[in-house]
């Protein structure tokens, strides 16, 4: 059983129309639907083309321009450099998996805070602000360690794939590859 996506139509005048509520909405409303975990799809009203990704990227761009950006210059330039590379197809799933793991970590921390302090949201917000002020470096260190481990696993997977490719293509009579043949 699949859940139907909420369809948002984008008209040539750049207005967004929510077919579920039969009303025009803003990009901020689409952002709120995403935050509310509503599964949605944005289609061009004229061509019926799925433009969900471009609308979501537009929301991210507005968020990046609106305050404390999440993506540094270095991160953005690295994203651009991955396009066209052999491993481009693996980058999306790699990032997606890491974000899922980060979300799980966040959820566990929320659950622990709820167990300790109850559902007092204001207290939790203030508490987390203070916690992050003092524990931010420790959290960053923990994330750095995780990313180093993740990188190690990724490189190990890449090495295994290379070895499998060598074994698979060894029966085709290609001349053997030797490191000293490198220019």
Description of the molecule:
The chain is 61% helix and 9% strand. The chain has 183 residues and is of the alpha+beta class. Among the domains are: 1-73, no CATH class; 121-165. It has a 4-stranded mixed sheet with strand order 3-2-1-4. Strand 1 (6-10) and strand 2 (16-18) form a beta hairpin. The mean pLDDT is 81. This is Polyhydroxyalkanoate synthesis repressor PhaR. Residues 7-66 form the PHA accumulation regulator DNA-binding N-terminal domain.
Provide a brief overview of the structure:
With 183 residues, the protein is α+β, with helices and mostly antiparallel strands. Helix content is 61%, strand content 9%. The model has no long low-confidence stretch (mean pLDDT 81).
Cα distance spanning the termini: 57 Å
Enumerate the strands of the largest sheet in spatial order, edge to edge or round the barrel: 3-2-1-4
Classify the helix fraction into a percent range.
55-70%
What portion of the residues fall into strands of 2 or more residues? 5-15%
Stretches with pLDDT under 50, minimum 5 residues: none
* Order of H and E elements: EEEHEHHHH
Radius of gyration: 23 Å
Principal-axis shape equals: extended
Label the structural class: alpha+beta
Number of strands: 4
Largest sheet: 4 strands, mixed
Number of helices: 5
- Provide mean pLDDT, rounded: 81
Protein name: Polyhydroxyalkanoate synthesis repressor PhaR
InterPro entries: PHA_DNA-bd_N, PHA_reg_PhaR, PHB_accumulat
Organism: Paludibacterium purpuratum
